[in-house]
Amino acid sequence: MSLTAPPAPRITYGAVLGSPYVARLLGGTLTGRLPNGMAPVAILLWATASGSSIAFGGLLSALYGLAAALAQPVKGRLMDRHGQTTVHLPAALLNSALLVALPLTGPYGGPGLATALVVVGGLTAPPLEAGLRALWPSVLPDPRLRHAALALDTGTQGLLYIVGPLLVAALSSAYNPAVALAVTATLGLVGTAAVALAPPSRRWRPVPSEDRGAAPVRRLASPGVALLFVSLTGIGFAIGAMNVWSVSMAEHYEQDMLAGIISAAFSTGSFVGGLIYGRRTWSGTANRRLAVATAAFLGGWLPLLALPAPYAATAAVAVPGAFLTIVVACAYVTTDALAPKGRTTEAYAWLILSIGAGQAAGTALAGRLAEQPLPSAALPAAGAAFALSVLLAARRHLSPTRPPQRGRHRRPLRGRHKTP
């Protein structure tokens, strides 16, 4: 009689999406985050349609994205202290109201009022991404299901930046940019409400810190966490540089659609890579997989140094795109293991900010080098190389001193009870 244990059943995405609340949380988050891809484009189109210059419209668009990124850690900390619903719903209501008000008050208040509305609108964008990542341990106690859900969640993010701008362009063409802003606001509010009113989000509370005497800021900014976030700025840098490089490619070859096609290929690679990664259980620690995936991410950018033709370039960017989801998913798992109890959502928010800050830096530097083909094509690889170098140097700091916990967050129901 064989004593060998039968193999664990294969994880399918049907099983993940069929788990209680998963489809609602994932669908609501994706809907609520569509404004991340829609609002900057809609603001730019509204500004130019209202008679402002493209430069001013671009400034408003950039300010919205920057404000949304900078406010992430603050909103993450608020969720760790007060729960998700009390942060999500007020933020969504205010963000949606400001987006709707922008075309109504812009002509009367001038550039100053428009700038204020855009900045406050960005600051109040709901922190759905960090919130969802904090929910997975309580919604999916099985680590294998949680692994697949995280890969699916991460892999679909790139699609937001394809669908969102296309939807804004269609609405602005068929109606006007004010309608696009109104639809953006509505989607954000509906998606956020679907998440915030779901029982897992309403019941979610962080596990309080065991060491109440320690300084929380110091504990969050441990060497491992800090070095991980520094490395992720290199990942964001590569993405930002790629976006500008794709525009310069489109201008060089006089093919206006090329920039969108390259970005779509990168996002599609990310989606497919996430689907493949999430269907398997992988050996080794998360930080080791993170280093391997970052090395592959770097290798995927190297063909651009040969200055390939448009079709070859489009195919080439799908390779680093496929490894991007793995990098980000492993970064979240590593963050979960390193962050102190009661500060997980805030740590996730800093992770998001790190990638966003790197993306802004990559965009800025690539813009200055856009007229130089080889340096422009080399910047994504440079960002990936920086990320890999920091990860390799930080290996001993990335090993958690405590094991990742199963169901780290408790969910109070009729008072409080522990997550099973």
UniProtKB/TrEMBL annotation:
Residues 399-420 are annotated as: Disordered. It comes from the Bacteria. Keywords: Membrane, Transmembrane, Transmembrane helix. SUPFAM superfamilies: MFS general substrate transporter (SSF103473). The chain crosses the membrane at residues 43-66, 87-106, 112-136, 148-172, 178-199, 220-245, 257-278, 290-309, 315-335, 347-370, 376-394. The keyword Amino-acid biosynthesis does not apply. This is MFS transporter. It comes from Streptomyces cavourensis.
